[in-house]
Design brief:
mainly beta, about 55% strand, globular, disordered N terminus
């Protein structure tokens, strides 16, 4: 197995990525998102408390860009909860990604426990607010692979990062970015940490829907079929916003996916394919997801695939269980 990955591409959430291109028609219109996950009547919102768990694995493309082996295994957990604040229906979408990351050069192997934790709060689909983000937070603890063909031992294969981001979308956008540094006290041998913090602002004005980067698994579920449009999302890594092309197929594909629903075996037999890709002039592959077609499953995300930079592999998320309260 020979590959490399940029941790930001995981998220991802599933998150900020170095993926690029593919273009769709930019007509300047906004998507009218809908509450497909609740089977609610138009103009209404049903309470939801839903937890999904996914198995995470690595699809190795046998890349020539690096001379070491890389592997990931882990779990991805999402929670979607509704609440009411005054006259507004609010959703909170939280995620926990836990990874075992392994680097191997010849007989030398190092293994780490990496993670990403995020939470985003946003308004209900439809209406004037239409999935508009309110606030979000994310923490990333990552041993991120280096692109190198000169690694002679495992420690040459990665760079360690630990970040926390807190975003506020009121009165424009504000982000607090913290980088946490880890070290060892030479006298006591104990671990010590220090933090560098900076605050910056960003614009939330756009002719397109403005979303937080952590929202797109929810946005996939809320898009009408046949969607082919552009959204703008804040990316804390570049300290600004970027446009992404998003789509959801018109027709459902036949494919069986089995999972546990409240402890019972369930089977989805059709899915819509969703995709998201950075709107730019560089080449790259979109991130894709399978969204259950059946009303009984409320447009649950069955599968998600995030190709990594330089076509060196992909992170795959496969639904294992859903619990609805």
């Amino acid at each position: 197995m020979r590959t490399k990955k940029c941790f930001a591409a995981l998220a991802a959430l599933l998150a900020s990525t170095t993926l690029c291109l593919s273009s769709c028609t930019d007509n300047g219109s906004k998507i009218t998102f809908k509450n497909y996950w609740s089977n609610a009547e138009a103009g209404t919102v049903k309470p939801i408390n839903e937890t999904c768990e996914y198995e995470v694995s690595f699809d190795d493309y046998d890349s020539s860009f690096i001379n070491y082996e890389l592997n990931y295994t882990g779990t991805y957990k999402t929670t979607l909860v509704s609440s009411r604040e005054g006259d507004s229906f609010i959703y909170t979408f939280s995620t926990e990604l836990a990874l075992t990351t392994t680097f191997t050069v010849d007989e030398d192997t190092e293994t780490f426990k990496d993670y990403m934790i995020s939470s985003v709060k946003f308004y209900a689909p439809g209406g004037e607010d239409n999935l508009r983000p309110i606030s979000s937070s994310k923490e990333i603890y990552s041993h991120s692979p280096r692109i190198t063909n000169e690694a002679s031992e495992a420690k040459d294969c990665y760079t360690f990062y630990h970040y926390r981001f807190t975003n506020d979308y009121s009165d424009g956008g504000t982000c607090i970015k913290e980088r946490i540094f880890h070290g060892i006290n030479e006298e006591t041998g104990e671990e010590i940490t220090s933090t560098a913090e900076e605050t910056f602002t960003f614009s939330t004005s756009s002719k397109h829907n403005v979303l937080d980067n952590e929202q797109f698994p929810v946005a996939f579920r809320a898009m009408p079929t046949g969607t082919d449009n552009t959204v703008r999302m804040f990316n804390p890594y570049i300290e600004g916003t970027q446009d992404y092309d998003v789509s959801l197929s018109d027709d459902a594909e036949d494919h069986s996916v089995k999972f546990q629903l409240n402890g019972e075996t369930a089977e989805s037999k059709k899915y819509y394919e969703a995709s998201i890709v950075l709107s730019s002039n560089a080449s790259g592959q979109p991130q894709t997801a399978w969204i259950a077609e059946e009303d009984a499953f409320n447009r649950i995300m069955l599968y998600y695939k995030a190709p990594l930079a330089n076509s060196i592999g992909a992170i795959e998320y496969k639904l294992k269980s859903v619990v609805k309260i």
